[in-house]
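Q: Cell wall-associated NlpC family hydrolase, please. Structure only.
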Amino acid sequence: MPTKRIFAAAALAGALLTSLPLFADPLTATPATAPSSASVTPNLMGPLSLFSPAAMLAQSAAPAQLATKASADKSAGPVDEDDADGDGMPDSGVDAVAALANDTSDLRKTLIGMAMQLRDIRYVRGGHDPSTGFDCSGFVRYVFAHAVGLDLPTNSASQFLAGLQVNRSEMKPGDLVFFRTAGKRGQGRISHVGIYIANGQFIHSPSRGKTVRVDSLDQSYWAQRFAGAKRPGALVRS
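A: Structure for Cell wall-associated NlpC family hydrolase:
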């Protein structure tokens, strides 16, 4: 019996020695080639083998960063005017709208037509779309963008710096009229803009609590705060 056990142990040891290279193969250097999909050994570690603290921290911070960016984008819109409260601004506009002259160009007629279609849309600070409302510069930008494809600056002060200066006696339909409604009467910065129609009338989005309407430059409030007129580039030859 002891002899049989010795032979059995020797046979087992020989088998182990014979199979040893199988365990040594992974230690042998092999070329860095991508294995085929059929020969890939399943990853027994699963998701744990991809653990990355830095990546997880970045992912956890992403929602907060996106929320902050969205808030910043919203507040960075074309918020324009100090006329949002409309102190002293007339509560109503003119009763009758002046007719355009027969020699008014089609381009200018298109501008005024678009502007008139937007009457009665409410004032919203920073507003630039009829679905939500307009502030004064948002209203002007919308009309020019959709009527003639011209992209104007985002606020009234910037719009005042663009375009050709026009004397009051030479204004035409579609020219921009500007006002100093902030600070002391007629002495503050440019803070309001409208679109000239004809016969001293202009259309604009006035201030909080009001809607897009037509007013007259001869009205005392506007006459005292009138800062000048500009002609955007698309209208210079029209």
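A: Brief note, in case it's useful. Confidence is low (pLDDT under 50) at residues 15-78.
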